[in-house]
Design goal:
By secondary structure, this protein is α+β, with helices and mostly antiparallel strands. 16% of the residues lie in helices and 33% in strands. It has four helices and 16 strands. Strands 1, 3, 4, 5, 6, 7, 8, 9, 10, 11, 13, 14, 15 and 16 form a 14-stranded mixed beta sheet that branches. A two-stranded antiparallel ribbon has the order 2-12.
Length: 338
Amino acid sequence: MKAFRLGFVIALFLLFLVGAVYLSSRSRLTQKTERSPTPTARPVADITPATFPKLESVDKKTTYNASSLVGSLPTTVAAYRVLSSFAVLEKARRVARVLGFSSEPQTIDIPGEPLYAWDEGEKTFSAGGSPPAIAYLSGLPKNLPSVSVSVEVLKRSARSFLEDNALVPAGTAAENINTAYLAPVGNDPVQTTRDRATVVQLDYRLFLGGIPVLSGYPDIPTYTFWFDGAGAMRKFSGLLFPPVEVAGEIQILSLSEAKARLESGGGTILSAFSQADKNRVETQYYSFKTTRVTDASQAYYFTPGQEVLAPVYVFTGTATDERTKKTVNTITLVSALP
């Protein structure tokens, strides 16, 4: 039974982190309109390009058509140096205490970083992975009441939780990028309308100087909350970021140069998802030959172990799945370093 519970905790940890994607596929990834001025400190040299994971749900390489993109984006951005690493277990213990866990975690050996798991029957909490993340689940009753709490009250609760656990690094800002109304089946998310909802999902993204900070897959929010109809937090997942400081400035590719790099095969597709599959929990696989790029923005990308956050271009677009003819929304990242 214990082995089964541990397996369940691991599966829950992975599925909940990835599951936020399906309800956040329209989340705002572009930078905010007001950007902090770029500091005039000395330039930063020898920045390591971002290292991206592999997307398994697309079975072939795609070509890109970015001819419709016009305009320009800044060619100089602030550089942010990672101040220090942190002990995942120490940070997880602090959050676990706030959530009411009194026991010590079990250490589960999985490929890469170890996973720490607290399991107290109706509620579980896990921490680990690369990039490091945490995930909490409190069991959902079968007959949840309809949502009666205002979203603004829930946002204040989410903000308090982030602040009480020091999850937002100094110098960054966590902004609400998506609100979804759910009527879950078991622990599976099913989107619905506000009047039928029994759960509210709130998604947050970290920003630095108005530019989003990404890690892992870009369509996974930095933090995701589930609140039930009475306002109790039932689920939480979040990426753990180290503190950073401004360290100078970075000269980056122009938008036209980044487009050329994308069209010549220099991009990495990290999200492919059709809105037609928004209530499907299982992984959806797509196949398409051409992606039409519809928008471009800039972001910082964090890879564990790097000394300076890497600047990237984020290209969003659409494609048509060859088998089902569904419209697939895509996100492709390109290094912004010359």
